[in-house]
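Human: We require from you a protein record containing the residue sequence and its fold in token form, and nothing else.

Assistant:
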Amino acid sequence: MTLDEQIAYLTKGCVDVVRTAELAAKLERAQAEGRPLTIKVGFDPTAPDLHLGHTVLLRKMKHFQDLGHRVIFLIGEFTGLIGDPTGQSKTRPPLTRAEIAANAETYKRQVFKLLDPEKTVVDFNGRWLGAMTSEDWVRLAARYNVAQMLERRHFRQRYESGQPISMHEFLYPLAQAYDSVVLRADVELGGTDQLFNLNVGRDIMPTYGLEPQVVMTTPLLVGLDGVEKMSKSLGNYVGVDESPNDMFGKVMSISDELMWTYYELLTDLSLEGIETLKVAVAADRLHPKRAKLDLAARIVTDFHSGQAAAEAEAWFEQGRKRASEAATSAATTGELPVVEVVAGAAVNLSRAVADLGFAASATDATRKIRQGGVRINGEKVLALHWQPPRAGRYMLQVGPHRMAVLEARRVDVRDEDPRGGGV
């Protein structure tokens, strides 16, 4: 790759690059000297499982590996004891050492689904942070001041609203910054919510006589509901360890609009390639379902295999066929309740499920949806609004036994109210 091509490849999907000119200079120098850059990424083992939202960052690490650079997967065993205050409105409870150790083991197994284990250095920041004396911590703290800490929005908001900020929370960004000093990081990667912490590293590295690291952030992936960021607690996630069939089906549940974001952040397809697909879909040369099937196949291939992706697609299509046939049969014999909806228009699933008596309330229905208890034509639907792609009958299933038919019909313009009010 030329230098410009390397920059385009490495910054694809990034939100912040501080600074691009410095990254170009580091890449040019590394090539001239025949040495790889050191890329640092820290993960606090706060939960045992990774989901696709985490892999946005892992994929960027892989991009650096592809270009021959040294990637350090840093497990924050020490900073996990502090508790990252990022995005928290109150002091975050720290993890126990046993929780950190257990979660770290599962992290190491899962990350190598994307990263090359031969090119990845796994390290633990407790190795140096745990060895620091009281004097070392005082000297580190002296390199930053309270005014700089309060530039962090969440700290400032809590301070101005009278909410407590514990002193140890100020140590977290300092500890993360010191990791960069010890590892002599050329580049540090993180999510957009980590921008402040990453920039603290830039700030203090020169005080140790080091060139400041380049900071690069990736966006927080929106979950399957199309609204909130991907999170296990919200039930809108795809787990890295999920089966090929579940992974494929979940990806197929996202909206057509969200599909393009997933293409950009969860695949290695170039921006030009993604734009080509968009144009083909807009021109009706490519059906959006086909584009989404290809997306799901790419993702399953990355975490399982090409064969697993092909089998998952066959399973998915067969399930849709069986569910469609069941819906048609049930509607014909009158065995199931039928709800009329409009093809191509969004259906409020929470309200529909509640109105059918399949949930105690719309809130209860929302919970069932987010927990994966609602299916349409055999597919889990995690979005609160669902749009029937075309006219026809669709099987709505809530839990194992409650079923109804959604009958989507087209709106004939001749049936529209001339005053502009619906049909």
Notes: The radius of gyration is 25 Å. The longest strand covers residues 402-409.
